[in-house]
Amino acid sequence: MPPGKDPTSRRFTARPVAPFDFDLSAGIFTDGDPSYRSYDGEEFWEVMRLAGRPVLFTIVSNGTVAKPSLRVELRTADAITDRDAREARALVDSHFNLSMDLKPFYRAVRNDPVMSFIASELYGLKSPTTATVFEALIDSIIEQQISLAAAHSMQGRLIRAFGDRLELDGRKFHAFPTPEKLASVRLDRIRACGLSGKKSEYVKDISVLVAGGRLDLERYETYDDIDEIREELKAIRGIGAWTAEMTMIRGLHKMDSIPADDVGLQAKISHFYGRGAGAKASSDDVRRVAESWGKWRGLGGYYLIVAHRLGLEPAGRRAETPEKVRRGPHGK
Hints:
CATH class of the largest domain: Mainly Alpha
Distance between the termini: 40 Å
Oligomer: single chain
Radius of gyration: 20 Å
């Protein structure tokens, strides 16, 4: 160890496949819980687990969309090993899908005027993936049939109540709870986080299955057939088609999956594809529109969500597009 080097801190540079817009890609976390994961417009941070203990990841962009580069810092309470650093690189790559090449997606949607316009405005946007599939599944269960604001409140309470704690410079952080922790707590404590009785049971039961080795969610990363994943997940109590689709997108980055029954996504299809005032797109409408995006259906759906969040307008109303997201085909 070189003299003066802090063993509890480690830095490295990550180089994403271009194009990559860090600000756009991290922007979805702007309203996140700062004790767990958030983005302040310059710096992204999240507590993830390395070698079984919580580590604070801080990421800042020091590159461009065309030549992206990220500075990553790891901090925790004890020494960070070379093995930890290697695992951290893989986590960061997976979390922001840094190795994904967006160009095939842009080619796939070029004959869709709406999506090609949105893709040019959001050039370099990559969708995030949770650190574990378990996290994606639990989040999706909590979000079933309630508003995102209510779900995020419950998720935050669950994380603060049961996630491993990390204190750095007088600040307290939390990691997402492990299956083992959630399997060990009483149902009434899970319910105290705001979850319904049924959802508390689903979270507890799934945690018990994963902690006991009877459910290996990470194995689905090796599956090529999303229909097979969906049906296996649906066989578990508390998981329907919507929850399975959301888990595949968020936790496995299966971009050929799309949650066609999602009312929010249906609203985005109506808004951007001109169903008319008051009209609502159906699940079939979502599937029909997304069909032209090929194996990138899930990514296209994510682009619609981000476009709506940023106030982009459908093709034909481009003059109303906010200047801050008007990037054009070559990035910033």
